[in-house]
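Record pair follows.
FIRST:
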Amino acid sequence: MIPVKSVLMEELLAAVYGFYLPEHIRELTTDISIAELWKPDENGLDIIHHAILSGHDGAVSLFNEMVQDLDQELSMSVKPKVYLHLSCLLGRERVTELVCHNADAGVTVGSESVMWPHFDVIRNCVKRSKRLPLTSEQLDTTESVYRRIQAHMNSEPPLQAIDVAAMAGHIGCIIAVLNSHLVWQYTKQSSSLLERALHLGSLHAFRLLLTQHPDPYSVDYALQIALARKLPEFVAALLDFGADFKRALDGINPFHFIYLCSPFFYSRQVYAIVCRHVHGIDKLTAFLIERGFDVNNATPPGTFPLYSLLASLFQEKDYNPSRVPTRHIKALKIMLCANAQTDRNELESMNTNELSALTAYAGRELASSALNAFFIGLQASDTWRVHMAEHLDRMCLTLLEHGACAAGSSDVPSTPLHDLMSATATQHVIGHMHADLSTMSRMLLYFGANPNQMNSTSQYPIECYFSHLLGSTGMGGLIAYRRWKGTNNAAQVIYCHFCCLLYCFC
């Protein structure tokens, strides 16, 4: 004898795959328990899977309502699986829109987390549909996308539902997902489709949307976000599209923009997706160089890339004081290997008013050389960790090895050695008495610095140190001096600086 529930389920499935939805379908669902209704069949498909495969938007809407009306405890035990990927694969636009009404649609879930049925099952179910059947050619195309999804490597960025839709060429499904209230949780409702796809980290959808003739403003803003978030693949897509970097960045060279632009923040859920795309500031630097961007582009003034990178490096160090900014250090080496100039003087031929305006525009202090920019950053840095010292020493040596002039120039107010002494004094005034920068001093001397050269105020480097220490914030400088004098570091610093004075006589 055939169980009553099986007969009802067969009738219900027949209605789902039929052209019309009988009026008594609600009565059928009331005669079947919720647990039975959402129980997977031998192919792992529940009732909503079948509704999606048939393309029956009325059935999907009905079952969505049933899920939303469930008691919370019961709903947790029978919560539907992720259906969005399946509807995007098949190009069911209206169904995709309805699935997104469900709070657990899984917009940011990767395809690796989806239990896909065998494609023969999908093919047979779709062929049963009297509402939205697919042709054999369409099914073959769908199967090709299905195989690509199955072959997707876990090491690659995850394929979200809209990535699946993009791979299958279903632009309508992409728009349905990006216009859903679930995506508005991650982005502003007024944001463009390109921006929403970028926020979700969906590279496939982003590329397909670029073929839909987006307006220039959307493209420009997407470029700004891609550069700020250090996303080389998205920047590459925009380059291939022909995005106007000069217009989008208001004439600023892209290196300066990615180093000192304002950071963008993610929700925790979206960050888990997007961070798989992020390669870091070093990879994006290498990519821009590879695509022909000039590392010595100093237009507009005050945005010279190498000095902006050094300023960004110290900002990163201060923002995460316990972590070494390894990506910035790698980016520095990449730029120097690409022949970035180390002797660019940003202060040339500018009056005081112009300098003030440029400093505000650049987002950092202007520099007369790479070493000057490095020591300015060190002087302005408000954190110091012992484990960072060797990395800072190595960066100084890297600059010197790539042509930075340790002796300085006669047309600048102070030499690198003066700048280093000021940075050392500032660290001690702040209270970092263990900051010993004597290794850098010896490096400068080895590469040609003159300890007897005076700056524009007729001070030797050693004088610059003590005048800066004692002259800082009035009484604060005297307190700092007394604190410095009582530490073990004092003897080392005095020895180091007197060695500087005696160096040229040895």
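SECOND:
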Amino acid sequence: MPQRRSFARKKAPLGARRCPKCGVLMFLISVEATDQADHDLRTFECSSCTYHEVVTVMHRNEPEEELDCSD
């Protein structure tokens, strides 16, 4: 007799969000600078129900590599 299989909802990829209303993957539609250093204001929107979220995210700046121009 075949076994019944249940499929769990997959988690969103790292850095992505799912809509709390309908569960569809949300897309990043805007990134804006904030007054705080090392912070961005990111806007996510659901393509299905047009729900949107605005989130403040801390990011880290990578140190600039030193360029060797001694040729």
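COMMENT: The longest strand covers residues 25-33.
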